[in-house]
Amino acid sequence: MHRAWRLIPSAAVLLAAACGTGTTGTTTTTTQATAARQGGTIALFLPESKTTRYEAFDRPLFEAKVKALCPGCKVIYGNAEQDAAKQQQQVEAALTQDADVLVLDAVDANAVAPLVNQARQKKVPVVAYDRLISGIDYAYYVSFNNVRVGEMQGQALLDALNTKGTTDKGQIVMIHGSPTDPSSADYKKGAKSVLDGKVKVGREFDTPDWSPDKAQQQMEQAITAIGRDNIVGVLSANDGMAGGAIAAMKRAGYKELPPITGQDAELAAVQRILTGEQYMTIYLDIRREAEKAAELAVALTKGEQPAATSKVNNGTADIPAFLLDPIAVTADKIKDTIVKDGFYQADQICTAEVKAACTKAGIE
After folding, report:
1. Periplasmic binding protein domain location, by residue (predicted)?
2. CA-CA to 231 of 20 to 30 Å: which in 118, 161, 185, 342?
3. Contact 275, 354 (CB under 8 A)
């Protein structure tokens, strides 16, 4: 652990001096320090499991990368299940277990500054993962360009409406993410920068917990308020909520679903895109994100400070950041992005119900 190994060299030097070992003492010191650096305790905290990416990708990819880079490192893991109090308990428990680094995807990124401060007092560096933590300085931020995600979603929806000739024939519904997630505000900002003044927004919702069930309820409310035939498109901030909105529209008797956006490239969403139920998703290379966070965590256990590629202001400080590029994916792009990268194998996507659509898209 980094706080422990920093004490080893001075102790070893004193021992060497007392024993008169000279060069041998220096060699022993180096060996001891190197051995100590081979281990460490890294804590990873994820916010929820309703979004399938966290347990299916983020956690296993992060843990595998840590193991590859640091076989002696231990990973403490906690999923808060969208409960901020539970996440606080998980973080505090990790600090009592002498975690060397915290990688934190906060349930409420606007309210965890006190937790980060607890870590700072113990000299434990914090990496904000996926969601920007506000109100305090910390080591790094690893995520995607979230405003760009919203821009891509907005542009994709606008392109689909223009192609169908329905841009000015009705209204759209906007289903945003959780109000406690700063990324949601960025997605919204990006989408609105593209859509404002070009489409009419009939109903707009913030969705607590990114819940697909709540998104379904919101879509049902929108259909009742606007009228089924007056909704020409849906801007959904992620795939799980898109699934909820689609369930509401099917229940309302839509013969043809309007274009709907998403994000995360969830397997069910990829299949919906191929069969025409969902128009697009934002493919985030979660492998790169999880592995970059793991690389930083391991480096920090060694006392290293890798140079960041950019900085993001969180309202209090300029946080060293690594921001990855999102990719907009429609049916014609699945083969050359999601499948090509091995995010899913063709046989995972092309179940019996989707086989014909896969063949049409050239996915075998």
Report:
1. 42-305
2. 185
3. yes
